[in-house]
Design goal:
This protein is of the alpha+beta class. It has ten helices and 17 strands.
Length: 467
């Protein structure tokens, strides 16, 4: 099985190998912490010994390729063969060899198998007649399932013969991380499942894997995340390693949900002298007629607000659900901005109401940038570029009877030329990315896009300073 992801930096000219498997760990519980940790460590060592032995076999999904330590592949791939050559063995509905000749951006999935027969499987057992030792006592056995999820970026030119050793090393390292997590986060005989999460922070050209205990909140893990920021020399003013920040692989995406990051894939704008400043992170596209709710011709600002809330959710700032139109109206009534009769109506809202809702629902403050006409927006390139460079949040803009979401700008600091990346909430069609991009529902617009006779307010959400 193969998928596609957007690559940069170290990930260019590399294949991503992703190994997923579930291993069972069983150990004896005791109240002596030191002895308990020794019991856990011994069982992890036994599991690592099994992984490093010839019993462990790695299979490239949707292919006949089997990789084993100390042996060549089961197929006739020479030791001089490169990892890129593995693409030709994948049985895919699409022609992988034609579409991805350079291999960049490809995710190759690996299964971990265990040999149950043969000399190597027999050699892992005792080489003598079994002796049964019976001890009559009460004890408590704990079983934990370990969801292995190992990701490796491997150069396309790497010899195939080195792959199995890389996988063994990756699995053993993740088992070490799981052992430390299991020993640290437990209360009495209650143990959490240690689960790996993969991250690719904005500006980083590599993937980082962190093991977190299930059942422990992001708030409780703040000190762990802060150490990560410090070790990796990353800014400590925004969350980068919360669970919601986890990198989403193509096969893990929810095909039935909202489209995310609909601007990706659009052709670049501007010339050599201009620079592009874009929204940082992930957002969901919310537009007219979604959620089986007819808000055509009046709900554009509501939808823009939903897109902004989705951004704060995806970046891990909040777990507040995406507000419905009624939720938004109720919030404005609760803070005294609207009368009770506003709830259930089809009345428009503007940039100020959006800022009130973000403050009330998420505790997010906003800056309001106003212009007296659409023509004046052409002079705001520097302010908008600074916003996307420092805050990176989507901007809701309202003017006349219309609202839009600004996802970025292309700005020439010398000539002042400016283009806006617009996400249009007035779209009423299905979740079809090609249509949305081809028809301009998400696309680059010039200053002439704005009404020269309309007054505009821009709601510019500010990131909370936290990790």
């Amino acid at each position: 099985m193969e998928g596609r992801y957007t690559q940069s930096g170290i990930l260019q000219n590399s294949l991503l190998f992703r190994l997923q498997a579930e291993c069972m760990l069983t150990f004896e519980y005791c109240t002596d912490i030191e002895l308990l940790h020794d019991n856990i460590a011994n069982e992890f060592e036994n599991l690592q010994d099994r992984v490093t032995s010839d019993v462990a076999v790695f299979q490239l999904k949707d292919s006949p390729v089997l990789l084993q330590k100390h042996k060549e592949t089961e197929l006739k791939i020479t030791t001089e063969g490169h990892c890129l050559d593995l693409l030709q063995y994948i049985d895919s509905e699409d022609d992988t060899r034609k579409r991805h000749q350079d291999g960049t951006g490809v995710v190759l999935n690996i299964d971990l198998l265990w040999k149950l027969t043969g000399q190597c499987a027999v050699s892992k057992g005792p080489d003598c007649a079994p002796i049964i030792h019976h001890e009559h006592r009460n004890f408590q056995l704990v079983t934990v399932y370990l969801p292995l999820d190992v990701v490796m970026a491997v150069p396309t030119s790497e010899p195939v013969s080195s792959l199995s050793a890389l996988m063994v090393n990756g699995v053993c390292k993740q088992l070490d991380d799981m052992r430390r997590c299991l020993c640290h986060y437990h209360e009495g005989d209650k143990f959490c499942t240690p689960r790996p999460y993969h991250f690719k922070p904005h500006g980083c050209d590599y993937i980082i894997t962190v093991v977190y205990p299930e059942g422990v909140t992001d708030k409780q893990l703040e000190s762990t995340r802060r150490r990560l920021h410090q070790v990796l020399i990353l800014a400590e003013d925004r969350p980068l390693f919360r669970r919601a920040n986890a990198f989403v692989f193509p096969e893990d995406k929810d095909s039935g949900g909202y489209l995310t990051n609909t601007h990706i894939g659009l052709p670049p704008q501007g010339g050599k002298e201009s620079k592009t400043f874009l929204v940082q992170g992930t957002y969901s596209y919310h537009h007219y007629m979604q959620d089986r709710f007819n808000d055509d011709k009046w709900g554009c600002a509501y939808r823009s607000l939903q897109t902004i809330v989705s951004w704060f959710r995806h970046q891990g700032y909040t777990d507040h659900p995406i507000p419905t139109h009624k939720d938004i109206q109720q919030a404005l009534v609760d803070i005294g901005d609207k009368e009770v009769t506003f709830i259930g109506s089809r009345q428009w809202i503007g940039s100020m109401e959006v800022s009130y809702c973000l403050d009330h629902m998420l505790g997010v403050t906003c800056k309001i940038l106003s212009v007296s006409s659409g023509e004046e927006l052409a002079s705001k390139g520097r302010e908008l570029a600074h916003h996307f460079q420092t805050q990176g949040t989507p901007i809701m803009i309202g003017g006349g009877v219309l609202a839009h979401t600004i996802l970025g700008v292309d700005f020439n600091d010398v000539t002042g030329d400016l283009k806006f990346l617009i996400l249009d909430p007035h779209y009423t069609g299905p979740e079809d990315l090609k249509t949305i991009q081809d028809k301009g529902w998400c696309g680059w617009k010039g200053p002439q896009f704005w009404d020269k006779n309309a007054h505009y307010n821009m709601c510019m959400p500010q990131r909370p300073v936290e990790i």
